[in-house]
């Protein structure tokens, strides 16, 4: 089987080995391809060589392990080694600047390496997240050096925790290229089980922006509606569920009120559209979605402060550390930002999340092995992510100093917690009883 890696007709080279790249490598192995994988970060190369992907994405490690055992996966040591292949996939999870826009020098470096080293007729398939019209600049680079190579853009839509399914059998596949034959050939090689929509490069880039901007808009709309419903004494969950029952509203749209969105994904595309809008005189809508989300992100701490006052020396238990429950990565996590703010305010924080990776060294919170350990002696519990372990919690048996819980993500049943003796603050009508919010006239 080892010879399969050297068979260029079945080989795909993947650049990037964090979430997107490691999933792409595993997905291509699932499709029977041989994979050459590269990342400039040594620890990510070592992780791939040991079949230990960085985010703990379900299914990825097992497939990488099988690929290594069968000789179909090889980890390259140099960018040029990646670029010398006939089909090169650019799969960095694009880094962002302080505002959330794409700012990643690795992308241009990879394109330049492809221009220098790719064989005649090679194809560069871009899965990385890039602003619309990036392909114009990259085509200029390629044409200046290698007019005989091809550029394809395939916007990824991998959901954390379900990425393997999304890659292997995508519900929607958009392939952008200048020539239809190039797009079809690339789609057959990378996504043989999908039925692609073939579009221009610009359209493919914009589809990515549009998808995530729409999802971010839905999250913010649901949270704002939930805020108003709670103040009026209505159940936000009931209102949102009945909204989604309307056939004109997508049932899968993320409209249930809960936490603000975090992670780089949605913000990156909203920022991209805001910047494009600023150029063409239409930035306000996307700016507003971002502003609304940033404001909503702070509401759990606002509730906590309103109830407890000064948080200095208060012991706060936090359930959930990652922005996607049941996953490991803390990258761009809202719960982690909340923990940092609590620590800055002088609180003692004990965090519970059985799957999350280790906290950064500069975060002085203690990790608890169980929810009971985290809550014991706490002045309040902040639920920052909808951990599946919360469903079976013995709320009556927990022993905090005060039975106060702030539901920051819509994970709890306030009636059940009330029956167990807890006061539950969050986006639900019982909030009125705690905060004194005005009832509807």
TrEMBL record:
UniProt-listed Gene3D superfamilies: Cytochrome c1, transmembrane anchor, C-terminal, NAD(P)-binding Rossmann-like Domain
SUPFAM superfamilies: 6-phosphogluconate dehydrogenase C-terminal domain-like (SSF48179), NAD(P)-binding Rossmann-fold domains (SSF51735), UDP-glucose/GDP-mannose dehydrogenase C-terminal domain (SSF52413)
InterPro entries the UniProt entry points to: 6-PGluconate_DH-like_C_sf, NAD(P)-bd_dom_sf, UDP-Glc/GDP-Man, UDP-Glc/GDP-Man_DH_C, UDP-Glc/GDP-Man_DH_C_sf, UDP-Glc/GDP-Man_DH_dimer, UDP-Glc/GDP-Man_DH_N, UDP_ManNAc/GlcNAc_DH
Taxonomy, superkingdom: Bacteria
GO molecular function, one term: oxidoreductase activity, acting on the CH-CH group of donors, NAD or NADP as acceptor
Any single GO BP term: polysaccharide biosynthetic process
Keywords from the named record: NAD, Oxidoreductase
Family assignment from sequence similarity: Belongs to the UDP-glucose/GDP-mannose dehydrogenase family.
Protein name: LmbL
Organism field: Streptomyces lincolnensis
């Amino acid at each position: 089987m080892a010879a399969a890696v050297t068979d260029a007709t079945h080989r795909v080279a993947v650049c990037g080995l964090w979430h997107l790249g490691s999933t792409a490598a595993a997905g291509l192995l699932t499709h029977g391809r041989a994979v050459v994988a590269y990342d400039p970060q040594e620890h990510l190369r070592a992780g791939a060589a040991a079949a230990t992907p960085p985010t703990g994405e379900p299914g990825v490690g097992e497939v990488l392990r099988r690929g290594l055992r069968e000789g179909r996966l090889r980890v390259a040591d140099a960018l040029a080694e990646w670029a010398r292949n006939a089909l090169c996939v650019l799969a960095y999870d694009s880094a962002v600047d302080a505002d959330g826009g794409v700012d990643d020098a690795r992308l241009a470096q990879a394109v330049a390496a492809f221009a220098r080293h790719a064989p005649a007729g090679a194809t560069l398939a871009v899965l990385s997240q890039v602003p619309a019209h990036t392909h114009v600049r990259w085509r200029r680079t390629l044409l200046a050096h290698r007019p005989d190579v091809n550029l394809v853009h395939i916007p990824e839509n991998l959901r954390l925790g379900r990425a393997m399914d999304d890659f292997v059998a995508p519900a929607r596949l958009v392939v952008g290229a200048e020539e239809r034959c190039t797009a079809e050939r690339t789609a057959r090689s990378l996504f043989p089980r999908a039925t692609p929509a073939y579009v221009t490069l610009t359209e493919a880039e914009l589809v990515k922006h549009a998808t995530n901007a729409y999802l971010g808009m839905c999250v913010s709309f649901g949270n704002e509606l939930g805020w108003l419903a709670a103040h009026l004494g209505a159940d936000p969950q009931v209102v949102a569920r009945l909204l989604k029952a309307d056939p004109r509203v997508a049932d899968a749209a993320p409209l249930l009120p809960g936490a603000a969105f975090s992670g780089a994904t949605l913000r990156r595309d909203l920022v991209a559209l805001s910047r494009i809008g600023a150029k063409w005189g239409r930035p306000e809508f996307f700016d507003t979605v971002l502003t609304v989300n940033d404001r909503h992100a702070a509401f759990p701490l606002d509730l906590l402060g309103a109830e407890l006052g000064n948080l200095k020396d208060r012991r706060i238990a936090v359930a959930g550390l990652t922005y996607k429950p049941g996953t490991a990565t803390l990258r761009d996590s809202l719960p982690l930002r909340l923990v940092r703010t609590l620590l800055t305010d002088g609180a003692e924080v004990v965090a519970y999340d059985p799957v999350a990776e280790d906290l950064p060294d500069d975060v002085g919170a203690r990790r608890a092995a169980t929810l009971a350990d985290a809550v014991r002696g706490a002045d309040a519990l902040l639920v920052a992510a909808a951990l599946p372990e919360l469903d079976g919690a013995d709320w009556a048996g927990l022993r905090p100093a005060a039975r106060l819980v702030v539901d920051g993500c819509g994970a709890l049943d306030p009636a059940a917690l009330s029956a167990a003796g807890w006061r539950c603050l969050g986006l639900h009508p019982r909030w009125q009883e705690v905060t004194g919010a005005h009832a509807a006239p």
